[in-house]
Structures are given as C-alpha cells and as structure tokens.
Amino acid sequence: MSDYAAAPRPGAFAQALRVAPKVSATLIMLALAAVWLGPIILIVMTSIKSNQAFLAGPFALPTSPTLAPYFSVWASMNFGSLLGNSLLYATVGSALAVLLALVPAFGLSRMEIPGKKIIFALLLTGLMLPQQTVLIPLYDTLRALNLLDTKIGLIIVHGVYGMPAQILILRGFMTTIPREIEKAAYLEGASDFQVFWKVMLPLARPGILVGYTLNFIAIWKEFVFALVFLNNESNFPVTVGMLKLNSDRYMTVFNLPAAGLVISQIPIIILFILTYRQLSGGNFVGAVKG
Amino acid sequence: MPKLLREEQAPAFVAFAREHTFVALFGVALPILVFCTFVGYPIVYTIYLSFFDWNGMTPTKQFIGIANYVTLFHDKYFYVSLVNNFKWLVVTLLFPVTAGFLIAYVMRAKLVYGAAFLRTVVFFPVTMSLVAVGLMFLLILNPVFGAFDDALRAVGLGFLVHEWFGDYHIALYTLAVVSGWAFTGLPMVFYFAGLGDVPKETLDAARIEGAGHFRMMWSVALPQLRPVTAVVVMLTIFESLKAFDLVAVMTKGAPFGTTNVLGYLVYLESFWNSRFGYGATLSVAILVISILLAALVLGRLLRGAFDV
Asked: Chain B residue closest to A216 (CA)?
C-alpha cells in the first residue's frame, strides 16, 4: 500500500481510497486463511515428502511427491482397525443417541409434560458435565456389567452421553414444524404413536440428519472415555490409537506422523464435504438456542 | 422460576401418563432411567467415593471422612491446575471467542473476500479431534523441524522464538492457544448466525448516523447478540473446564506439572496413581466449580437464552 503514497499524481489519492477496501479485504482473507488453513496445508505437504525432501525444511515444496509415508504408516499403525472401530463407535453410538432422543424431543416440543423444567435442568446437566467427574464410577459400573474394555460398553456410554444434546437439537427442530398436519391426524383419531411415527418422523428428517452428523463428529473426536475404558488395542478408536505417533519411532522424520494425521482425518473430511453447508451455516445454532 | 416441586405435580404426571402413555414411557421414563443410571448415579457415587481411600482394585474401601478434602486444600498441584484452568478460560475468551466474533462480523459486513471459503476454513478444525490437533502442532511447533519458528525468523520476528513446550512460563499458553485455534469456528458460527438475525433497519440506521465499524460492533451488534454471547460463554467455560486431550497428547503436564489442568489431574491420580478416592475428590471440586460458574453465568447472562 505504500506504493500509493509514493505516487503523488493527481487523483492518485482518490484512486487509493477506492482500491484500499479491496486490498484490505484481500489481505484480511489471506491472513485468516494462513492462520487456519496454513498448518493443515503444511501437514499435507509434509506427508507426501520423502525422507530427504523433509530435511529441506518445512516450507520447501515437495518436488517429487510420494505416497510411501502413507503405506508405511498405514501398515505399522494398523490404521484399518483403528478407522473401522471409530466408524463403528460413531455410527452406532450416534444412532443410539438419536433413537433415545426422538420421543423425548417429540414430547417436549408438543406437549405440556408436568415437570418439564426439571427435565430441562437434567438435560443441561448432562450436556455441561465435565466427563472427568464421572470417569471413576462409570469405569466401576462398566466393570460390574462386564462391559469394561468392550466395544458395546463404549457404544452405550457414547449413546447415553449424546442423548441430552440430541434431545435439545431435535426438540428445537421439531418446534419449528407447523402443527397443522398433526392436528388433522389427531382429528382423524390417530394415537400419539401414530402421529410421532407417520407425521413427525418424516418431517423431522433434516433435523435428525443434522443431529446425527454432529453426534458422529463428537464421537469421532472423543478421547477421554475411549482412553480410560479401553485397554485392548483391537478396540481402540483412531484418537487413542494414534497416540503412538507421538513416539521417537515416528517423531524423527515428520512425513510419517503427518501422513498418519491425514489418514485419521479422511473420513471426517468426507463427512465435512457432504454436510458443511448445513453445519458451518449455523443451522444447528437455532436448535441450541431452543 | 416457578416452584419446581409442587404437590399436585405427581398426580398431574399420572394424568399425563394416562393420556399420553407412549410419550410418558419412551419420552420421559426411559430417558430419565438411562440418565440416572449413567449420569445421575455416577455423580452421586463420585461424591460418596470422595470420602474414601480406595486403590480401585480391592473390594473394600476405607472410610476416611474428609481427609481427602484436607489433602486437596494442601495439594500444590491442585492449585496449579486450578489456576491453569482459569488461565485457559481467559485465553479462550480472549482469543477464539473474540476472533470468532470479529471474523463473523467482517464476513457479515462484507469487509472480506471469499466469506464462504473462510467460514469453511475456520470451521474445519472444529471437526478435528484434539488428539489430531495436538499432534499437528507438535510437528509445527517442533524446535528443530517445526514450521512456526522458521516462519517467525523469515519475517524478522526470530526474537519471539521460544521452546513452546519446554519453557514453563509459556507452555500452558501454547496449549490454550492451540485449543483456541481449534475452537474458533464454533463461536464464529454462532455469531455469524446471530448477526444474520440483527434487523437490517437497525444496522442501516446506525450506518446513516455515521457509526464506524467499531461502534457498529460495540454499540449495535453486541447488545443485540447478548443471548448468543451467553451460549458462547457457557460453551467456553465448559470447554475450558474439560481441557484434557491436548494436555494428554502434547505435554502430559510437563514441564514440572506446570501444564496440569484439573481434568488431567483427576485422570493421573485415579488411573496412574491408583488414588481413586482422591481422584473422586478432585472430580467433586470440578463439579462444584462448574456449578458455581454455571450459576454465575446463568444468573447474569443467560436470562432469555434458554427460554423453555
């Protein structure tokens, strides 16, 4: 921008004023993108470098890209099993959370349930509770039920802890659905269940999808429960399994951990591409605001 | 707040259950049962356990009264962690929340090109696991091969280069800023949606009155966004209290326990030092702090945000 000051032609100042917003708009964009996209690009770049190329420095472009780090880290970290487990926990755990949440959300959005306030207080407790405060008793409970270090045990925990958020999200969505169709159905003599099943569920599908996706991402990211409740490597999700990347074996040349990082994010990137319009558009914000 | 436990409530629920059996069973009874088993009971059990000495293995637990709480109040690491959680909270309120608001504002005010692209880019880290984020920044902030130090030197800011994890003055802030980097997308999305709801007339009126962007943000947008801010602040508080993943991945409390946070201390004491009773005591401390902060925020900020 100093160029403009150095050019005292008539009209140059006016021109500068006209250009300045465009320049600043571009600069702001680049600066922000550099902060949030920069680290990710660097990691992807590192992940396709050979060992020698890595030594040329973090900003050197990968001149002869190679996928070797990916094959190597995939095999030695057993990523197939880790990704499979994460996928299982996220798909089934979220399904359980949504299933548990559907009828409560229906009831809370449509009926005057006595003690509604208490239910909401419980929901908020479940939502805000730091997981660490219940680790020990949950560990104990799972052990008593013979579910410690099992996939099913972790799925149940994920499902239950996803439920409060799902109830709030689904209830928020269901409140926005007009009641006319239901009223007609009730007049025709439909029961609560029939209205829920035949009217509400089909109409609530978009909300269910948003809720399910958010829960999927939450379980995919989850770390504490999996770390504490699982012991056997064959049960580990990606978050726990990839801790091994942080060891001398992998941290000498960064292309291996970088490739591992990219692999661990691929499923979530696919999901993100499919759903980011809904998510980053803030469609769920209204649901949370209730 | 109406009286929660009126006497007619129980009969009212019976009447409701008779009329709406399906909802009463699967919409109220079942979730409450599940909730009590996996959330309510554990909370009560944690409180109970905090009065015992237990290594987690033996079938018997030894009742020791408030001894764990006495230990807690003399535990240096408890105070270090408590202060660290507080610092973490302050960093999170200053960096990602402010940045999220500013980014949302420049996008809504059309001060920036490629808003849709930016929104995607800033939001993406929200979907990453903190384990992945932590590993990523271990690579980027590495003192030998890391890109960040190189970048600082390249733009003449080499004097800022630090041992980001080794220097105990800044290690905790490194973690908090990294967590903020991954968190910014959330406040951004909330504020972006909230700014979209501010009536255009209000903004135009302020514009015509000659308000600059700073005035627009401070005197027009923020007051209108109070409910959004309330939700964001709540989320931030609980994110900060839950801080665990990054500590476990990046520093494990090192150097010298200076990056311990309460959530990590619970884990260390219970599952590494086998002091389950004391771990439960720390959990109770977290619980009490959460409730106090929640009450504070609920009372002051949240009015109207969770209208039920």
From this structure: B127
